[in-house]
Design goal:
alpha/beta; Rossmann fold; binds NADP nicotinamide-adenine-dinucleotide phosphate
């Protein structure tokens, strides 16, 4: 029997992966607080799941304390499923691109955890934090310099905070390969591209938000009580296996 957290805060709760995690947790009776940037998208998911939410942009430093206040005094889990996709050659990447990817993917995660630390420390059991890296942090892909750098920072943050916050709080990251969400869809512009990319995965398909939500749900449960400081790939084998195609 999986014992799950009572209350989880999801940054990016209106996104493909964040909403799938929300649905999975909600179906198991977990209370949620969601954060997103687009008002209509956030309101739709919050209404569907019957949970509270805070609207805002992680580029705005005042968001984090507001979220911490709105999310309640006690949290058992925090998910930071916010990200960018900005694939360009090095020559076309500006300083602003690098800084934005770092801010949204890595620094935002650090600030989110920092602001919610008092609530996570009040969890009755051991609280769990789930961050998001990417296959691109450990595999070299052209045009990924900025996002790969930012996700590498997320993996460093995962390790460092797992040590610092133990034993009260576990910190892990999930590293997906291409997954069908709004963010992922920009690379899946047509059937031909989708088939070609699917074939680069040993398991022969593109990921779904539910593939990723399964691991997040597990990491947020007490069944993962002895797992911390890990970045775990959910990637159809992309990071480690050669496809047969
Ligand atoms: N999909 C993939 O192929 C893939 C692969 C590797 C890693 N990942 C990682 O997985 C995580 C979830 O991505 P996803 O695929 O679910 O993307 P998504 O569907 O685009 O969702 C992203 C979420 O983040 C929110 N968000 C984006 N920028 C924000 C900002 N500046 N301030 C506040 N919220 C912001 C979005 O809110 P709005 O809807 O309001 O914009 C949305 O809720 C990300 O960390 C991503 O890097 C995804």
């Amino acid at each position: 029997m999986v014992t799950l957290a009572q209350k989880v805060l999801i940054y990016g709760g209106s996104g493909g992966i964040g909403a799938a995690i929300g649905r999975s947790l909600r179906s198991r009776g977990v209370d949620l607080h969601l954060v997103g940037r687009n008002e209509a998208r956030l309101a739709a998911v919050a209404q569907e799941l019957g949970v509270t939410s805070t609207l805002g942009d992680v580029n705005d430093s005042s968001l984090f304390s507001k979220v911490a206040q709105d999310a309640g005094a006690v949290l058992d889990g925090l998910v930071y499923a916010v990200g960018t996709i900005n694939l360009r050659s090095l020559g076309r990447l500006t300083e602003a691109d690098f800084l934005n990817d770092f801010r949204v993917n890595a620094m935002g995660a650090a600030l989110a955890i920092q602001a919610s630390l008092p609530a996570l420390k009040k969890s009755e059991g051991r609280a769990s934090v789930v961050l998001f890296s990417s296959v691109a942090a450990v595999q070299g892909f052209t045009f990924h310099a900025s996002i790969s750098m930012a996700k590498g920072a997320v993996e460093g943050l995962t390790l460092s905070l797992a040590a610092e916050l133990a034993p009260k709080i576990r910190v892990n990251a999930i590293a997906p390969s291409l997954t069908r969400t709004r963010l992922g869809e920009s690379l899946l512009t047509n059937e031909q591209a989708s088939t070609a990319i699917a074939g680069m995965h040993a398991l022969g398909r593109i990921g779904t938000p539910e593939d990723i939500a399964s691991l997040a749900t597990f990491l947020l449960s007490q069944q993962a009580d002895w797992i911390t400081g890990q970045t775990i790939s959910v990637d159809g084998g992309r990071s480690t296996l050669r496809s047969k195609g």
